[in-house]
What does this fold into?
Amino acid sequence: MSILDNLRQVKRELLDEKHPLANEAIQFRKTYAIGYAMLVCVNGYPSEMAKDVLKKQIAALDLPAEFKKLSISVAMEAETDAIHKVLQNLNEAKHKYLFMLDLYDYAQKDRKITEKEQELLVLFEELLQLSYEEVQFIRGFRLAMLKKDVEVATKVVQAAFEQNVEIPLKELPYFIPGFEYQERLMQMTLLSGQKKKLGYATYLNGEVIVGKGAELDLNGMKVTFGNEATIIVDGGLLKADGAQFIASMDANKTMLSLRNVGLTILQDVHFFGANNVRAIEMNNAKVELDTCSFEKCFDEERGGAIYFTNSDHFVLRNCVFEHNSTLGKGGSMYIAGTEASHMRKRDFFSRITGKIQKVKLVMNSCHFKESRAEMSGALHTYDAEISIHNSTFDSCSSRAGGAAIDTLNCTIEANGNTFTKCKAGMTQAVVILGSTKGTTESAIGQFEQCEPKNLMMK
It folds into this structure.
């Protein structure tokens, strides 16, 4: 169990974290607590330690402290009417599962279960008419609770889903602090006519390729990228609105590649690169990003967060770039048309069509914060038509070239932008507009505390 897991456990104990059923009707909670008290009392009148555990359970259920005495009294009598009320109270699968996990949690606190406790647990499993698959889930998850092992818990939940057991995922972290179920997805290729829709947060290992005529729907889920993990949409359709792309420390490939696709619009998507990998690379693709965010993305050579090339339509609206970097050009974005020198020298994506295309970049109301690069702290553009409006470049930096922007062989239309505390390490200006005509410093935007200069035109 990690330090964070232990801290969460202590927080739960010290701050009296509420039970998942604390918002149920009060009579439901009282009857639930009486059922719990039956296990507390099964070995005889409870010890002070046992009464303290019951007290915490009653507090977690948001019941008055004085209810502890009544629950012990009713449980000690264990009249058939009281037992029937407990069973009738647990009429939903979720209630049954949480009740049994609560009982197992108590029974194994001292890392042993007495014969009477074991018999009571088995009787409740039978009286609640739990299926074999449901019992397997409960007993498997209680072992994960005992070991405080998230990996075991994940395997148990995965197996239960495969048996069509409806797991109360939102409630399970109460029993294993920090637990978050992630479905495991290995290497996969979707061919024409095939569709895949995620139902849960997913941990990805290997390549997922979405071919022409195929569809991948992330369903707004969190996708964590492990070793060799990447999603390649090659002519297929991606639905990713509201999704999260999260790189693990083992991630070593660009998380998302869009190739040979028609207009693809991504809305409210979050990319976290863990200072390990790039978020998106795009080739022969028409792409629009709306209210997307890119955090701590990294690439060794070009475009810490985004690499866009061989395409003529790229629009960004209200996007946020924070703490992205590269050892090469374009801390957050590298944009290149097919006439870029490195494009002529080699087939970067292995699928260049040969058609000469000048990128048309439109960027409105975007924010770049602390983007860093060897050259072009935030944005490097080569062979493009650029339109940048009402965007902010805050504390961007580079050793060479522009601290915020470099453009080469480009035309640019810009206004309403703000550049604050952008610093270049050498003598070049914060913004370099190479081979660009017809623009001025005042037209581009406002400059505040930038070093050593605001604008250099070559």
The chain is about 30% helix and 30% strand. The longest helix spans residues 132-147.
